[in-house]
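Loading example: each entry is read as two labelled lines plus one structure line.
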Amino acid sequence: MIISVTKYGIMFILLILFQGLILNNIGFGGYVVPFLYVFFILVLPFETPNWMVLLLGFVLGIFVDSFTSTLGMHTSATVFMAFCRAYLLKLVEPRGGYEFNSKPNVQLMGVTWYLLYASILVFLHHIFLFYIESFKLTQFFYTFGRALSSTFFTMILILIVQLFDYKSTSKS
Amino acid sequence: MRNLIRFLSKNSFIFLFIFLLFISFVLLVQNNNYQNSKVFNSSNFLIGNLYSTVNNVNDYFNLKEVNAELAEQNARLQTTQISTFSKIYGTTVQIRDTTYAQKYIYTSAKAINNSTNQRENYITLDKGSLNGIKSGMGVVSPKGVIGTVKNVSENFCSVMSVLHEKNAVSAKIKKSGYIGSLVWELGNYRVAQLKDIPNHVKLNMGDTIITSGYSSVYPEGVAIGVVKHFDLLEGNNFFNITIEFLVDYKKLSHVFIIKSLMKEEQEELEELNDVE
């Protein structure tokens, strides 16, 4: 238990630092920005209470926001994503429920399941975030395009991170 | 009460979500100038509309007071009218002002004879040389231009109406400021032609035509009429404009004769140009 909390804590800090210090500076003309930090919400175990996911999302968002000094923007988007996660997990639940000690990753749940789970949540987060950022509907399709393409890049990064995890677990 | 608690605990997840989302929105609006301005602008817009609607409704309730106020103001203004003064002090009003040099003197008069259906129409007024009327003075009514004084007797004067083939008034389109010349042609006493307006001027139906003030017979800005119809013939440089008079020349009664105090000065100056 303590080990897993520590593991998630380290991941939490690393993801925030990676997002704040590196990924925020990557941008294709500001059009596409990958937001890898949402991986933290995705990777939380199935047993995590829903209220905890919400609170963690809130705190995560605050930290990411403090890097870009856009307090509230990532926070609201991440809280929204954490909220959606609870319902999505029910929606994509395999027959017979989630196995004990199972975690939402590619290795245990399969590529199709994971892609569906992750891309829906990431897309919901991104679309919320980009519309909050632009805060108007006049450039609807432009913003939509930004959200869509950023989702694509975030998903690529998430899959790469998953790949590291895959190797380490298969070795052990 | 128990039901309420049960309801709250059952939906605690949603309430926590709403609570956190609310907090993040508060943070968002408080800390980000762009979103802040958007939110407050739109709320200002909403509140502003609400206020104006309420104001509109309130206005109806205040109508009675406003009417009373306006009536009072009308009465006050009426007492300062030229016509009022002329009744008390005679027929001529002269305002003494040290800031502005007076340029025109108005004398009120009454039309006692009038024609509209001739080729050359004249109006007879009940003021003559005894009242200081001279040939060449302008005559206007509160609604618009009437004509120019032609012949003067001791007690009467005859006015060459605007409805006179040879009486051209220098007119101006109020909006664009272009100067043309207003000519009446036999027929309809309600309309006249405005000439010499070049074809690049932007015209609209209903544009107001006023006097230009160039001739020094009429002050600048006396209403004449509105544009009723206009067209442009192929290859023509000037518009064909029909205007409708604001004054109904069949219903003339009280008019003002205008004496221009600076007319002679202006004419003398302009004559110098001809001498050279």
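Chain B is about 35% helix and 30% strand.
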